[in-house]
Amino acid sequence: MSSVVKLELGRTLLLDGPASARVLSGRVFIFGAEVRAGGRVLVRKGRRLPLEPLEPSELEVVVGRDGSFSLVEGSSIPSSWREAAEEALTLGGRVKLIVLGGVDVGKTSLCTYLANMALKAGRSVGLVDADVGQSDIGPPCTIGFARITRPVADLASMRAEHVFFLGDKTPSYMVERALKGIKAMIKVAEDTGVDFLVLNTDGWISGRGAAEYKRAIAELLGPDMILALARGLELDEVLTALEGWEVRRLEVSPFVRERDRETRRELRALGYRRYLEDARIITVQLDWVEV
């Protein structure tokens, strides 16, 4: 069943997947990616996308089972996000950013916004996705790299060009291997020649081990800026370990959707299914394999 929604300036349409929206008239943007009349937006299960009007717009909205939509006042992009993107884009040469934060604070949304803003500015954009528990670039439990060559509403629509298999949904049990994977993806990014690189991190932020791990990531990349999304004091221990780096504390968008453990598990299953949809069964005789 579809609904026609009129979207006025100053309001935001929140689409919770599974859902879709077709722009009947006007123009909207999602994390900086513009969608014109005739364009369609698909929202996967467990994901929320905010559609903001660039001019008064009309949309046809369809929601699936467990999907929904709502209209809210204001923008999904906090002013601190805009300021951080503007500052990053004034930097000369090759720009390297790290995005930090706990679970469900909007790290992927911020990465998407930064990538779209950099594309608009004519930069060559790459993303290293080290959020192994909820990977967007690459299958779950991997560290992936992709060049972002077009405006994108959902990073999961980009396919990884290179992937490092970690084998767990958290790096806390295999820190050295995770750092090896991140180093490999940074090298790939350098070799492709991108001049605006964003590195997304996982939600492990509690304890000394998490703080040391995040500092080790910074030492591998040598970021120009570290963008930290936090509620209250939850990142203080990590940020103390990052003293000496250029850190910007950013506010969490009020429209971020928090997901329960079951939803996150389902998203990982869907991630595997997406990458294995063209797979085929191969029969191998045991005497062909050396163990």
Brief characterization of the structure:
It is built from six helices and 16 strands. The protein is an alpha+beta fold and 291 residues long. The protein has a seven-stranded mixed β-sheet with strand order 13-12-11-14-10-15-16, sandwiched between helices.
Count of structural domains? 2
How much β-strand is present in the residues?
Answer: 25-35%
CATH superfamily of the largest domain, please? P-loop containing nucleotide triphosphate hydrolases
Give the count of helical stretches.
6
Task: Detail the topology: elements first, then pairings.
Layout (H helix, E strand, L loop, with lengths): L1 E6 L3 E6 L2 E7 L1 E4 L2 E4 L3 E4 L4 E6 L3 E7 L4 E6 L5 H12 L4 E7 L5 H14 L4 E5 L12 E7 L13 E4 L9 H18 L3 E5 L7 H14 L3 E5 L6 H6 L5 E4 L10 H16 L15
Parallel strand pairs: 10-14, 10-15, 11-14, 15-16
Antiparallel strand pairs: 1-8, 2-7, 2-9, 3-6, 3-8, 4-5, 4-7, 11-12, 12-13
